[in-house]
Amino acid sequence: MSAAAAPPILEVDRVTMRFGGIVANSEVSFSVREGEIYAIIGPNGAGKTTLFNAITGIYQPTEGHVRFKGRPVRRLFTVGVVLRSLLIGAATALATSVAVNVTPLWIASIDAHMVYGESFPWMEALASFGRELRAAQQGLGWIVLLVGFVLGVGAHQVLWFNARRTPDLIARAGVARTFQNIRLFGEMTLLENVLVGMHARLHTGFWSSLLRLPRFFTERRVAEHEAMELLRFAGLEARADQAARSLPYGLQRRLEIARALASRPSVLLLDEPAAGMNPTETVELMDLIRRIRDRGVTVVLIEHHMRVVMGVSDRIVVLNFGRRIAEGTPEQIRCDPQCIEAYLGREELG
């Protein structure tokens, strides 16, 4: 199936991002078809990276929705969530009761029965404490328990709701990304950096790793083999045992792309991958992006380098001041008056 006929794999539906009084994105909408290279361009400050952050779960959209393969990526409300809420509510109720009722009454009982120079009457103090506690429970004690329970359940629900759509969940669903500023682990080798990218889909648990069970060694061998294949794909196989910080800037960009591919994404988001590259490295990057698409990975990129954008993109969307002002093929965008004005300004007739 060609990219033009393919269904949308990523949909951005009227996404708005507000930070106080600043509107970074305003009702931005577009859809990316499976198997295409889709570019997001615009002047500095147009809201491109903010939009990437909203897509990948770093930010929660103030308004609008992001759908991947036809549905929002978020954690489901299950029976386990309800049970954890009830357990946390019960624990909070108990802690609140102890803080409000039990501790003050016990301190008061000790003060009432302590006589200087005499042995402390523990049994009498405990009996008095029990009577006072029962009286308190008949009064406001149950209200304290109820308030503690409601606070515990409510706090857990707020935390769970805020964690419904997180970067790790979106990465596991099949959306990976690189960053505008390189985020490699400089002291680790190239191979280790790529292995880190595989973490989201490895299945070896804590005990298998701790006890060095056969499953641990089997999965590690498979992961190392696949990591070497990705380094070979990115042209970095010969440097697999070098520290990442020792690479030239252009190769660090390629390593970051290889690490993102390690999670086996369906969609790869590249944030200014050609930044800082020389002309030779730029041409090699364009070839790499095409080969990524040929592997069956849909590519969405932010880029200021117009040679890259026009050379590899199937379609382009243009942002300016957080709004979408144009969308189309490279030929259509090249001649669009609004795009020309956004980049070059408008001529004032005097």
What labels would you give this structure?
350 residues, 6-stranded mixed sheet, elongated, alpha/beta, 50% helix, 4-stranded antiparallel sheet
Write the layout of secondary structure elements.
Blueprint: E1 8-19, E2 22-33, E3 37-41, H1 48-55, E4 63-68, E5 71-72, H2 79-113, H3 122-162, H4 167-173, E6 175-177, H5 190-197, H6 206-211, H7 214-233, H8 249-261, E7 267-271, H9 279-294, E8 298-302, H10 306-312, E9 315-320, E10 323-328, H11 330-334, H12 337-344
Parallel strand pairs: 3-8, 3-9, 6-7, 7-8
Antiparallel strand pairs: 1-2, 1-4, 4-5, 9-10
Your description of this structure?
This protein is of the alpha/beta class and 350 residues long. The chain has a domain at 79-162. The protein is 50% helix and 18% strand. It is built from twelve helices and ten strands. The protein has helices spanning 48-55, 79-113, 122-162, 167-173, 190-197, 206-211, 214-233, 249-261, 279-294, 306-312, 330-334, 337-344, and strands spanning 8-19, 22-33, 37-41, 63-68, 71-72, 175-177, 267-271, 298-302, 315-320, 323-328. The strands form two sheets. A six-stranded mixed beta sheet has the order 6-7-8-3-9-10, with helices on both faces. The protein has a four-stranded antiparallel beta sheet with strand order 2-1-4-5, covered by helices on one side. β7, α9 and β8 form a beta-alpha-beta unit. α2 (79-113) runs antiparallel to α3 and α5 packs parallel to α8. The longest helix is centred in the middle third of the chain and has 41 residues, at 122-162. It is elongated. The mean pLDDT is 88.
